[in-house]
Amino acid sequence: MSEFFERNVEVIQQRWPALAVRLLVEDASLLQADLVEGLGSTLSINGIQLTSRHDRTREARLQADSLPIDSPVVHAYGTGLGDLQIELLQRAGLERLYVHILNGAVFALVLQLLDQQQWLSDPRVELLYAGDLTEIKLPYFALPSELVLADDFNAKIRDRLISETHLTFNNREFDPQSPEIIECLQASLSRVQTDHDVAELFGSRPGREVFVIATGPSLEQHFDTLRAIRNQAERPLFICVDTAYRPLLAHGIRPDVVVSIDQRISARHLPPEGTTDITLVYMPMLDPLVLEAWQGPRYAGYSASPIYQQLRAQLPRGELYVGGSVIHPAADLAVKMGAAQITLFGADFAFPGDKTHAGWNDGDLGPQLGAAKHWVLDGHGQRIKTQLNFRSYLCELERFIAGHPQVRFYNSSRAGAMIAGTVFHPEFAS
Predict the structure, then answer these.
(1) 3-165 belongs to which CATH class?
(2) 3-class DSSP state for residue 172?
(3) What is the CATH architecture assignment of 174-424?
(4) Distant-in-sequence, close-in-space partners of 251: CB < 8 Å, separation ≥ 6
(5) C-alpha gyration radius of the chain
(6) In this predicted model, what pLDDT tens digit does every residue of 149-173 receive, in sequence order?
(7) Residues 35-91: tens digit of each pLDDT
(8) In whole angstroms, how far apart are CA 55 and each of 37, 52, 86?
(9) Which residue, among 213, 63, 204, 85, has the nearest Cα to 144 in the 3D structure?
(10) What are the boundaries of each domain within the chain?
(11) How confident is the model at residue 276, as a pLDDT?
């Protein structure tokens, strides 16, 4: 033990004894640590610089300036080398600084190498592991280096932080003033006027069991089972997302309801033949050609997006939750129809078996396997390839599930991402 480590840990043991026990078993020896020098110096962990190597203090000041100056409570995600914490604690109006550890081994290593007593001893500081809480806290600053280095225990919070940080950028395509969006909504107007209101479906299946079927690769494990269940007289309601429709049909499985929200969905994804007895639930961004061709009942609804604000005032319709993916309104529809139990199929949010989707070739639906530079934990607790937007969709589904404790959610597979709030289905999840 270094002299720094003993003094740092002594403070932590006095203030947060339970956390100190956890820190003492963190294995910093597994990290590749190097000193990186420039105009100043910093620590590099596994090739990632924790801070600037030129001017750590100036960098910390810039980071602190991104947070509201008058906020009495601030959250820092990642411990870094202590620079941000020291900068924030200079604020006279700061009453509480929560410091959330994103990588326990990295923090343990820093405690060995540098004196951190100044901020650890400040009575305004509260220290905790990020993963001890299920949701992020605002306002916050997340150290970019530790978003990359976050360990498995804190990965769920890392995903929420990245999703929140990217929110404005991701929403740039959904400007209500965009000529393309205005044109698309106008093209669907006549159909929205004459089609059913999705609210007519709300409460129509009280206490029912519902299967919500997405297009993740693990869906392929369940085609035979789903076909057998679909042919039973007494069975769950089958709700599928648009891209799962064709793969289901190819295996002799006809869903009861298809949900679609995306203008990029075409007849290639939703062939209209033989759809007389299949309900289409859609939002007005859907291609009008798809709507015109659909033979079965059509129900229109909106999300909370500003792009529907004017249309909502003109033609009131029921609302479904959208968090970036079509799986969100599909799950919300099941809940609003009255489902007591929902089993998710193909809700992988990752690329198990090095595939992107069930029933489609690599790149057919957008993402290619080669672009997968990120990871989530699967149902076995192992890291599995994914991409950033999938992690964001997963975060939003988990938030949705947490907001509906009256419904029991099952996950049908351990191959895809672990979904907080779900239980692995005893019959389907292997």
Answers:
(1) alpha beta
(2) helix
(3) Alpha-Beta Complex (3.90)
(4) 223, 224, 226, 227
(5) 25
(6) 999 999 999 999 998 887 655 545 5
(7) 999 999 999 999 999 999 999 999 999 999 999 999 999 999 999 999 999 999 999
(8) 11, 6, 15
(9) 63
(10) 3-165, 174-424
(11) 97
